């Protein structure tokens, strides 16, 4: 076998294969929603009064409406694209796929397990006939993957201290936005907290991204590409955090499971951080 024979895929072919693989999850979810008989779909959701490992995992593929599916797919695309780009820039493409596959397998089981233990067994907030379903917990985990990728790229270009401040500023901005949007919090108090958190975040970023002896114009010119990449990915991260943690009133017996979103995000950060330490 010659050296050229070992190159099974060219860079372009590899990129196309990656895109197809990322779209594969969306195709599976769409196919399940469109063509799986409703009777069978109802058996694949997780029922708190009748828990099983099988439905704990299959529930992530079930959506009760087209709008629910479209929302999760939209966020999946918005999050996974920048995450893939960051890990590629970070020269950790193989790590991305290892983490991606791991989160697809682990997250549905972990989020349902935490839900079952807290919402059903400990707090009694859901009854035995209540069900859990949807892909949002996995999307939240990919948000954690994005956060670690963002931190890794900033650390690679600058320092871990700067990456920590920058990433936390985006996450805290998102949490603040979620608090402001919550119908259960007084706007005056949350507005004050929001202003404080955002101010601290902005000051922290400016201190860590200081331009030293160069002029602002010179610094912006030298760091333009980094600012665009970090700013765009950070905006996506903050927007996702707002969406994940906005508490909504129960409507027609349904509610957005903020606990599952939080669990997914923590799992994503934990798994991605652990994986990045192994390379």
UniProtKB/TrEMBL annotation:
The chain crosses the membrane at residues 19-36, 73-90, 97-119, 131-155, 162-180, 192-211, 223-246, 258-278. This is Rhomboid family protein. It comes from Halorubrum salinarum. The keyword Endoplasmic reticulum does not apply. Keywords: Membrane, Plasmid, Transmembrane, Transmembrane helix.
